[in-house]
Every structure is written in C-alpha cells, then in structure tokens.
Amino acid sequence: MPASAALMDRAFQSARMAFFDFAPDPEQPPGGLAGALRWIGTRFGVRGLEEGGLRALADAVVAEDRAGFLDVFLPAGDVSRAGEFRIAHGDGRIVFVHFDVCAGGPGGDRAPHVFGTLHDVSDLRRFEALLNDAMREREMLLAVIDACPISIAVADARRPDTPLIYVNRIFQTLTGYDRAEVMGRNCRFLHGPGTDDVAVGVLHEAIRTGSRADVRLLNYRKDGSTFLNHLVLAPIHDETGTLSAYIGLQADVTDEARREEIDRQRQRVEALGRMMGGVAHEINNLLQPVTLMTEELMLRPHGAADTACLRTILDCALSARRIIGDLLAFSRPGGRETEVVDAAALLRDALVLVRKAVGPAIVIRFEDRAGPADIRADRTAFTQVLLNLASNAAAAMAGEGTIEVALALVPGGPSRSEPRPQVRLTVTDTGCGMDAALLERAFEPFFTTKPVGQGTGLGLSVAFGLVKEMGGEIILESMPGRGTTATVLLPAVQGKLEDGHDPRR
C-alpha cells in the first residue's frame, strides 16, 4: 500500500469511518451490481461483506431498505446522494450504516464510478432508541402521576430551602395555585395563622433527619380558604443512596375530620348522658317525697312565715324536677309521638314562639330554600330544639342582634356519606363565638359559659338528645368573634308510605 494510502487508511480508522470506490464492470450493462468495490478505513457495519462486492452488500440489506439502497448506489449521471440502511449479518446482528455517495465518470454508455464514505451509526441509533424509550416511560410516568387522584408534590432536597420541582394536577386543584406559581418555592406558602406549629415541627425534623413524616395540619388555599391536609412526606434517594428529593402526598381530610369529631363528641355526650340519666333518676326519686310532703304541709294550718318557707321549698323542688326532666329527656329519648309534617310549616309555627321568647331586640330572619319537604318529628320536641338554639344565639349576642334561620333540602346520592335526602336547618348568630375548646364541650350537660345562676347548661345537650331521637344530627361551627352556626340535619320523608297512603294523612 502506498504511503499516502496508508496515511489515509489510518485517518479513516481514527475517524471510525470508511471510504469506498465502486467501479462498475464495463462488460456488464449499465445499472448492474457487478464491478470492483474497494475500501479504505474501518468497516464496522459491513465487515465480512466487503469482499463480496456490491451485490453481497445489497443482498445483506434488510428487504424494506433495499430499494432505497439501490437508488443511492446506482444513480444515473453525476449525482450526490445519502442514505441510511439496516444490514443483517449472519449471526443475527442488525447494524445501521450511513452512506454518503457521489457518482461521476466519463459518461456516455459507460456507467459512472460510485464513491463515498460509510459510517456505522448502530451505537447512535441504539442510544436514540433507549433515549426514546426512556422519554416515553418518563412521559407515561408523569401522565400517570398527573392523573393520580391524590395530590402529589416533589421537592428538591439538594437545593437550599427544599424548593418544589413538581406538582400534579390534583395539587393545583386542591390548593388553587397554578404549577408556575409554586415551582421553586418552599411549600410553606400553604401555611397560615391556624397552622399547627407542632405539626410543622414534625415536618422540619423529618427534613433535617431525612426521615418519613405523617401529619395533619391546617393549610390555606390561594383564595384564603382552609382545608385540613393529611400529609405524608417521604424521602427519595438516588442510586448511590444520597438523599435527592422529598415526595409529599396530600389529601383533604376536612370532612373526614369533622365526622370523626362529631363521632367523638357523640360518644362523649352519650356516655355523659347515660351517667347523668342514672343520677337524675335517683335524684328524681328523692325529690318525689319532698314535693308531696311539702304540698301536704301547706294544706295544714300554719303561720305566714311557714307558708313562705314551704312555698320556697316547693318551688325549688319543682325547679329541680324540671331540670331532672330535661336530663332524662336527653339521656333516655324515645316514647314521643311523631308524625310526618312539612318542615317549613312546622318551622314557621315554631318561630312564632321563638320570637316571643328571645324578645323584640333580636331580629329573626327566615329563608326557606327547601321547598316542599317532609320530616318525621314531634312538634313539641322540634319547637324545643329551635327554642334552645335561638336562646343560646340570643345570649351569645347579649340579647341584641340578628339570627338567620334557613331551611334547605340536601339531596342524597352515592357521592355523599348520607345516601338519603336530608332537611337541613341552620341557625346562625353574630355573637361572640366559641374557640375549639369550648366547641368541644358545648353539648355536655351542665356545661355553660354563663355566670352562675344564669343558665343550667342543658339547652344544647337537650337539643342534642331531641335531634338524635328524631334520627338526625346536630353540628356546631364557630370561631371567636365570628359567631356560631348550628346545623340540624333530619331525614327527609319522600313519596308514599309502603301501605300506599300519603304520609301526611
């Protein structure tokens, strides 16, 4: 090999490519594959085929690529062409080769020479295929995460202040923030004045130690509304075991927590009720002879001073019996005559008595959004519930203000925890309100915030027992300085009874 050819061969070897020159056989018709094929340089993609000439190379090209291969290598006239083809080897390997081809020669009846370069691009194509597969897998994974019904956020643990680097669609729906608004920010923007410092401390400790945390804390949406967030924070480590990120799974458990609190409150009040019921029964038995013997003494001859003393004893005994009656009504519901009545009509009748009871300085506004809706209730018990709620509201407003009373029909359905339709009665005041500690004890018998001698603390507990007796539930919502809303939910009666009669008759 001449020195120049050797240098060229070394250059092509270094470039991992090859130069070829194909001289068609002049004895064969133009456009044939017979001829001399010479190579200089590395022939990774065609090694083992180069000695067989252009025909052997064409035969090894994958059938789907063969027509394109012939168009490149058998051009008519002076042309430059390029193409990429798959070549199948006998050992099962498929290699990708790229040809840059030029053709030229004397023209006329003689076929032109074909020369050019070859590159084995198999590694590049395999890398591209792996990259495409990885991209598709990543896109699929992101699509699955984005469609996940749980709020997901990822924070970068390698950057200062652990900024968010990904949030899914449900996170945006839950918080009201767009993805662009939260990228690069620490998730503390969800915190507010009501966020529990203890829960925040648990999160900080988990981040400091690279551990897992499971907390509930109050978070704030973009519009300022709140939700109770059940947050599970878990560390993510890379292949070397280094902490690289944190993934946070969030769920709005506001309704669940409210139901749990209602259940806890109900269990606590029922336990107190059972205890107080037993005590009330025993005290009632002791009061019975006191009232009877006092009445007997008042019928006998005695002086004026004795009459006054006996009257005081009897009044106190009768007052105690009324309190005992309230306790027994709370702790041992049942035995009342109920009927199916129109909720709005019953409420309007009850409001006549309530307006008289709370006094002229209290304005009561009533809004009926329920339309025709029936409930099964005892009229006296229903009136007592409304009277107790309104009296508490009036006391919270120091005897002056406005009480909003509203009636609505809450439809049932598979998406609600209560499948049956319910009639909802709300009583809202603008009074002093209650904090969480007072709200937790509001239904306890004898619990009151009023001064000694101005209340027995049985109003809400009796209302609780009466509502429970009617198959419903009562919920209090309040904040200091923002008033209180009492919500009574009673099962609605719809349609005809099973015997075919109108339930109102």
UniProtKB/TrEMBL annotation:
Enzymatic reactions: ATP + protein L-histidine = ADP + protein N-phospho-L-histidine
Question: Which CDD domains does this chain map to?
Answer: HisKA (cd00082), PAS (cd00130)
| Residue ranges occupied by any PAS domain in the UniProt entry | 137-210
**Which residues does the UniProt record annotate as the domain PAC?**
81-133, 211-265
Q: What is its EC number?
A: 2.7.13.3
Matching entries from PANTHER family are given as:
SENSOR HISTIDINE KINASE, TWO-COMPONENT SENSOR PPRA
Record's protein name: histidine kinase
| Phylogenetic lineage | Bacteria, Pseudomonadati, Pseudomonadota, Alphaproteobacteria, Rhodospirillales
